[in-house]
Amino acid sequence: SMASTKEIKAANVLNNATTSTGGDGVTLLNTAHPTQNGNQSNTLATAADLSETSLESILIQIADMKDDRGLRVAAQGTQLVIPTAYTFVAERLLESQLRTGTADNDINAIKSGGYLPKGYHVMRRLTDADAFFVTTDVPDGLKMFQRSALKKGMEGDFETGNVRYKVRERYSFGVTDWRGVFGSEGAA
C-alpha cells in the first residue's frame, strides 16, 4: 500500500496539470505561462489525442521553447508519459521503422531522429485515458523530494499473539519549472 500511495501522489502532479495552479499563477499545462518576454505555452493550442501529428507538434514546440528573455532554450523531449489506453499507440509511434497508418514508405522521423531517447513510460495511475505528456531535459522540471526513506518495523504482542507492523516514509512531488513537461489533455 505504501508503493501504491507513492505512485498515486506522483501521478497526481500530471492528473492535476490542467486544474491546479502553480507558482506562476496558472495551471501546469497552459497556453499562457507569464514570462518577462510575454506568455508561453507548454500545451497544444487545440487539445488532441496522441497521434503522430500531435506528438510531432509538441516536439516542435519543445524545440522552439524560449527562456524568460525570449532566447531559445537548447531543450529536447526525453520521454513520452502515457496512460494504459495509449500503450499500443505509443508502441507503434515510437518503435515502428516506418510511419504508422500510411501506405507511404517514409521513415519514422521520431524514432530515427532520436527525439525521445527514453522512449515511453506507461503511468498506470493517470486518471485521464486520453491525456499524454512529454518530459523534457530542462533542469528543475518535475521533482520528487525524499525526506525520509522507507522504514519498516514490527513487533509481537506477547498477550494476544498479534504482530504489529509500522511503516514510515516522507516525500513530496511537484514541479519547479513548467518547461519540464509538455502535454495535451486529449480531445475528449
Your description of this structure?
By secondary structure, the chain is an alpha+beta fold. It is built from four helices and six strands. It has a four-stranded mixed sheet with strand order 2-1-3-6, covered by helices on one side. A two-stranded antiparallel ribbon has the order 4-5. The radius of gyration is 20 Å and the shape is globular. The mean pLDDT is 92.
Write the layout of secondary structure elements.
Elements: H1 2-15, H2 52-63, E1 77-82, H3 87-95, H4 109-112, E2 120-122, E3 132-136, E4 142-156, E5 163-175, E6 181-184
Parallel strand pairs: 1-2
Antiparallel strand pairs: 1-3, 3-6, 4-5
How many helices? 4
Morphology: globular
Unreliable runs, pLDDT <50, ≥5 residues? none
> Which strand order does the major sheet show?
2-1-3-6
End-to-end span in angstroms? 32 Å
Query: What's the rounded overall pLDDT mean?
Result: 92
Q: Please give the largest β-sheet.
A: 4 strands, mixed
Counting helices, strands and paired strands, the structural category is: alpha+beta
Strand content: 15-25%
Order of helices and strands: HHEHHEEEEE
Tell me the total number of β-strands: 6
In helices, the fraction of residues equals: 10-25%
> What's the gyration radius in Å?
20 Å
